[in-house]
Design a protein that fits this description.
Belongs to the SUI1 family. By secondary structure, this protein is an alpha+beta fold. The chain has a single domain (34-116), classed as SUI1-like domain (Translation Initiation Factor Eif1), CATH 3.30.780.10. It contains 2 helices and 5 strands, in the order ββαββαβ. The chain has a 5-stranded mixed beta sheet with strand order 3-4-2-1-5, with helices on one face. A hairpin with a 2-residue loop joins β3 and β4. The longest helix has 15 residues, at 67-81. It is elongated and about 60 Å long.
């Protein structure tokens, strides 16, 4: 037996308006992420080798802010460590187990960072 539809949420959240002065921008959530100062950030430096063919990486998680700032911070870390890496899904991935070096760089930049795992 099919589930009974109870409200607008069950219909996918569509709302139809007959108001000619309706402006959907008044109701759209602000999708821009807030930009926290480095001292207010709580970053975590992880070590991982899962899903990478046994190769080790350092992953920095917990960054809050625009993607452009995340990419810039990732570039800085890669340059200072002299290694490759990438930024995706809100994480900075640095090739190799350079957690201590990454933590020192982040602390110099004013971020709060803690070592997680192993």
């Amino acid at each position: 037996m099919a589930k009974k539809k109870l409200g607008l949420e069950d219909l996918g959240g569509f709302v139809f308006s007959t108001n000619d002065d309706f402006d959907e921008n008044d109701y759209v959530e602000n999708e821009q992420e807030e930009n926290l100062e480095p001292k207010d950030q709580r970053l975590e430096a992880h070590f991982s080798n899962k899903g990478r063919g046994g190769k080790t990486v350092t992953i920095v998680k917990g960054f809050v802010g625009p993607d452009e700032d995340l990419v810039a911070l990732g570039k800085l870390l890669k340059k200072k460590c002299g290694v490759g890496g990438s930024t995706k899904d809100g994480e900075i991935i640095i090739q190799g187990d350079d957690r201590e070096k990454v933590m020192q760089i982040l602390k110099k930049e004013g971020y709060n960072v803690k070592r997680v795992g192993g």
